[in-house]
Amino acid sequence: MREFTHSFELPTDPATALPFFTPRGEEAWVPGWKPDYLHPKSGETGRGMVFTTRDRTGATVVWTCLDYLPAIGLARYFRAVSDRQASLVEVVCMSLGEGTTTVRVNYRHLPLSPEGAADIDALQEADFRRDIDRWRDLVMPHLSAA
């Protein structure tokens, strides 16, 4: 198993920030993000929701929401890429006071096959940090509309 964690700040409160990191919320700012909502069909985020996406290789990724607790700024998801890997994804939004939120993103990857182990071994901490920092840049233009 490999784990990556990185944080960034947003100039808003956690209640405004967390919905940006739901499947429906990410549709507004993640290029090419088009989930297929299986349950519920509305795409409402909640424990037990199931949806699919495609990864960079075109493989189907099955996601389920393990926890969505806006009162404490927590969203946790399980994702699986066929027989290659499974991951736990956690987003925590914590107030720093004065309208600033720290967004902490954690991915824990578990290989399901030798191919999945190779995929996970190829992941780089610097790439993860760059990708998560990009989240901030992509969300920022949408904060004023929230």
Distance between the termini: 36 Å
CATH 2nd-level architecture? 2-Layer Sandwich
* Chain-averaged pLDDT: 95
The total count of helices amounts to 4
Oligomer state of the chains in this structure:
single chain
Radius of gyration: 15 Å
Any idea of the CATH class?
Alpha Beta
- Largest sheet geometry: 7 strands, antiparallel
SSE class:
alpha+beta
- State the shape: globular
| Total number of beta strands | 7
Organism: Pseudohoeflea suaedae
Protein name: SRPBCC family protein
Topology diagram in text:
Blueprint: E1 2-10, H1 14-17, H2 23-26, E2 36-39, E3 50-54, E4 60-69, E5 74-81, E6 85-97, E7 100-111, H3 114-121, H4 125-143
Antiparallel strand pairs: 1-7, 2-3, 3-4, 4-5, 5-6, 6-7
